[in-house]
Design a protein that fits this description.
This protein is of the alpha+beta class. It folds into six domains: 54-161, PAS domain (Beta-Lactamase, 2-Layer Sandwich), CATH 3.30.450.20; 308-406, Beta-Lactamase, CATH 3.30.450; 411-537, Beta-Lactamase (2-Layer Sandwich); 543-626, Signal transduction histidine kinase, dimerisation/phosphotransfer (DHp) domain (Helix Hairpins), CATH 1.10.287.130; 633-797, Heat Shock Protein 90 (2-Layer Sandwich); 808-841, no CATH class. It is built from 26 helices and 32 strands. The strands form seven sheets. Strands 1, 2, 3, 4, 5, 6 and 7 form a seven-stranded antiparallel beta sheet that branches. The chain has a six-stranded antiparallel beta sheet with strand order 14-13-18-17-16-15, with helices on both faces. The N and C termini lie far apart (159 Å).
């Protein structure tokens, strides 16, 4: 029986709760309508209030739209059927009013934080048809019974129209709990007797910072500041109204923060207790835009009159002003009495001879329109303003609500900025380098909002190309430097430290440039970062530094090689000198027989020749280094030259039991080229002599062939070969394959260095192919372009050289010897006297 009574009691309580909720809905919906019937003015206010409503978009947890109300359809320009399934960013397209940058998605913030997110009032909504609205918005997570987020409810409104909106609450037994749990506004139920909280929704938990268990231990007094507790108690005791609306109460959060709230509450029975349901609207950051939705005529008039935006209401038929607020009177200089009953034209606020620019024409779906116009105050001052019009109908009468935004200072500021920009560009137009403003936007992208004319010289692009996009500059940064440059930018960004970087730039069809950039970052209030700096072309400096470095390295290398060379030359000079001095001393022996004497003289001659060769190599190398070697080009028959040189070195080759051969070209073709006869002879002689020196047994081959206007001469041997790690060294000055003091082969090591330089002076190239212990082949490639004559034709055209015997033609001559070296003088005078010449010194 007790259970039955309890069920019956719960049923009665549920019925009463449903009835209360329905009464609340009906009372909220008709409260202003009823009051509007009292007077015509009240009807105007009620009509205005009914025309305002929140726009609501709901999404799933992926951010895809699941629904939107008509207000949202009207503001976004999207039809419900087309919007469902779209991403919220595609439909709810917002940007920052001040910067014009796209704002971060409120839905994304809610999904990431799991908390209610309220955006600042400087947000602009861009509708599908291009219309723009100033809006305020907030979002809250939708949670299921388990507390998991299943989506987001996004609530926003057009605050351009004096922040007017009206929330329509539909409450019934079926959707009460859904509304309660998922409402984006905090909802509280407290016991009227104990003032203890009986229930709170998730939004309240997020807003106030308490857990549900902590809330259940609190009373309504615990969330009020001390200076309002007494007033609250009086309100509770004296209140007899089932429905109450209060504005600008203060609530205290868990962390002690105070917020201003609007309260909508009504009495009900909850869990068998006399209770009160409270809906809390946070109006801290919404100023006067979210004033009471169910206010009386006096309240609404206060909101209208206290609005900081100059506002007026006039009849659409004759444009007669029926109401103006205080801000309007201050702005135009008219009293309320002077304005009422007159049109804007009669007051000369708007003049027919001054054009107005319509910014946003109205249409059937959205009657709001706006225009930019010059307005005149009572004192005659001109001001630039944007006038917003909204049509309101009260009964059979159509009214226009005007809101005026003064943009005079903005226009003046824009003009000053434009003038400064022109001055900046004039000042920077003649700079070869670049000064700039570089920005990282809040979405992570980069741009160059300001740049001087030097951007074309540096990066090959124009200011317009990079104002919103950094890519045109990134594309011309050298690939090897791009990652480093971006890392330096990110480091400067993360630490707000100066950006300093040197990098290369390669603009198509332009030479490579070295760039130096330095800038200082500044963190802006919206979270973006801007760098102010300059860029300089340091290509000449880099080239100079590189040349200095190469010169330094070359000097150091030359110093090292010369040190090694001097150590080697000490051996190459002392060794033959020892032979000369030693055997000269032996020649002084009185009892020396003729065979030994002749042998010693031959050794002295060879040692002298070796020393002479060494000195000649040194002189030739010095001339090459000094750049005093000249080229005397003449026609040279290379086949004949190679044959003669091969024959010349046959005796030396046979002395070592080597086979020296000349391989004639297989094809009958011209072997005459224009080159320096002495230089090419020296080149081939050096190669043949080296082959003989470094070959113990086997064959030495000399040959040639031509192809594609290139004559290739080769000298190959079966000698000791050259290790791979020393092949490049044999062509270097003052460098030898074996530079040890115990090397088995004589020579200064300058021969191949001289050979390489001679080949390059002749416009050719020398190559080496060698295998250690198997032999080496040297290839000399010389240009033979334009040599069309055959060998036979050339020889036929040559005149024979007549050689006449000299005889004793110098006999009896008087010859002056200008020589300060005594041995040289003695040598020359002895030879000349033998020819019966008279010698003077």
């Amino acid at each position: 029986m007790s259970t039955s009574n309890n069920d019956q009691s719960d049923s009665i309580e549920l019925t009463r709760l449903q009835k209360r909720i329905q009464e609340l809905e009906q009372q909220i919906r008709h409260l202003k309508v009823t009051e509007a019937m009292l007077t015509e003015s009240r009807e105007h206010y009620q009509t205005t209030l009914q025309s305002i409503g929140d726009a609501v978009i709901t999404t799933d947890k992926s951010g895809l739209i699941t629904g939107l109300n008509p207000a949202a359809e009207s503001l976004t320009g999207w039809d419900h059927t087309k919007a469902v399934g779209q991403s919220v960013e595609a439909v709810f397209n917002t940007s920052n009013v001040t910067t014009g940058e796209k704002t971060e998605s409120t839905v994304k913030k809610v999904l990431e934080s799991g908390q209610v997110v309220t955006m600042a009032n400087h947000t602009k909504l861009i509708a599908a048809d291009g219309r723009e609205y100033h809006i305020s918005d907030s979002g809250a997570p939708i949670r299921n019974k388990e507390g998991a987020i299943t989506g987001v409810v996004l609530v926003f409104r057009d605050v351009t129209e004096s922040y007017m909106m009206r929330e329509k609450i539909r409450v019934n037994e079926t959707n009460y709990h859904y509304l309660f749990e998922h409402n984006p506004h905090p909802m509280l139920v407290y016991d009227l007797n104990t003032l203890k909280f009986l229930a709170v929704n998730d939004t309240a938990l997020v807003k106030y910072g308490y857990t549900r268990e902590e809330f259940m231990e609190l009373s309504v007094l615990d969330i009020r500041p001390d200076d309002e507790k007494e007033k609250l108690m009086q309100n509770i005791i004296t209140s007899t109204q089932p429905i109450q609306q209060s504005k600008y109460w203060k609530h205290k959060l868990k962390d002690g923060t105070l917020i201003y709230v609007d309260i909508h509450s009504h009495s009900l029975r909850y869990l068998g207790r006399e209770a009160r349901l409270v809906v809390v609207l946070d109006v801290t950051e919404r100023a006067r835009a979210e004033q009471e939705l169910a206010e009386s005529e006096e309240r609404f008039y206060s909101l209208f009159n206290d609005s900081p935006i100059p506002s007026s209401i006039n009849r659409s038929t004759d444009h007669i002003l029926t109401e103006v607020n205080l801000a309007w009177c201050v702005f135009f200089g008219y009293t309320h009495h002077e304005a009422i009953g007159h049109s804007l034209e009669e007051l000369h606020i708007i003049r027919a001879d001054e054009p107005a620019h319509h910014l946003e024409p109205g249409n059937q779906e959205n009657p709001t329109t706006s225009m930019e116009a010059t307005v005149h105050t009572k004192s005659g001052d001109k001001k630039q303003a944007i006038i917003y019009f909204n049509q309101l109908r009260a009964g059979d009468q159509l009214y226009l609500v005007h809101q005026i935004v003064n943009i005079t200072e903005r226009i003046e500021a824009e003009n000053k900025i434009r003038e400064k920009d022109i001055q900046f560009r004039k000042l920077s137009a003649n700079l070869p380098d670049m000064i700039y403003q570089f920005t990282r936007k809040t979405d992570g992208s980069y741009s160059v909002p300001i740049s001087s004319e030097g951007i074309w010289n540096i990066f090959g692009c124009k200011h317009e190309d990079v104002r919103e996009d950094f890519d045109p500059i990134v594309r011309v940064i050298h690939p090897d430097d791009a990652a480093r440059v971006m890392n330096d930018i990110r480091y400067s960004e993360a630490n707000l430290s100066d950006f300093t970087c040197e990098f290369r730039v390669k603009v198509p069809d332009r030479p490579l440039k070295w760039i130096f950039s330095r800038s200082t970052p500044e963190l802006l209030p919206d979270g973006s970062i801007t760098w102010y700096g300059f860029i300089a072309n340091i290509t000449d400096k880099k080239n100079y530094e590189e040349a200095l470095l190469k010169a330094k390295e070359k000097a150091e290398e030359s110093d090292r090689l010369k040190s090694a060379f001097l150590a080697n030359m000490s051996h190459e000079i002392r060794t033959p000198m020892n032979g000369i001095m030693g055997f000269t001393e032996l020649l002084r022996e009185p009892d020396l027989d003729s065979d030994n004497k002749n042998n010693f003289i031959e050794i002295i001659h060879k040692s002298g020749q070796r020393m002479l060769d060494t000195l000649n190599d040194i002189i030739e190398m010095s001339q090459i280094e000094a750049g005093v070697v000249s080229i005397n080009p003449t026609p040279v028959d290379m086949e004949s030259l190679l044959s003669e040189l091969t024959d010349f070195y046959q005796r030396e080759a046979k002395r070592k039991n080597l086979i020296l051969t000349f391989e004639k070209p297989a094809r009958k073709e011209s072997t005459i080229i224009t080159t320096d006869d002495s230089k090419i002879s020296s080149i081939i002689s050096n190669l043949i002599k080296n082959a003989i020196i470094y070959t113990r047994r086997g064959v030495i081959k000399v040959g040639m062939h031509s192809r594609d206007e290139t004559l290739t001469i080769f000298v190959s041997d079966t000698g000791i070969g050259i290790p791979a790690n020393r092949q490049a060294a044999v062509f270097q000055r003052f460098e030898q394959v074996d530079i040890s003091m115990t090397r088995p082969f004589e020579g200064s090591g300058l021969g191949l260095a001289i050979t390489k330089n001679y080949v390059e002076l002749l416009g050719g190239n020398i190559k080496l192919v060698s295998v250690e212990d198997e032999g080496s082949t040297f290839y000399v490639e010389l240009p033979c372009k334009g040599e069309k004559n055959s060998r036979a034709e050339t020889l036929q055209n040559e005149k024979p050289i007549e050689i006449k015997p000299a005889g004793n033609s110098i006999s009896g001559l008087k010859i002056l010897i200008a020589e300060d070296d005594e041995p040289s003088y003695t040598y020359l005078s002895t030879i000349l006297k033998a020819e019966r010449c008279e010698v003077f010194h």
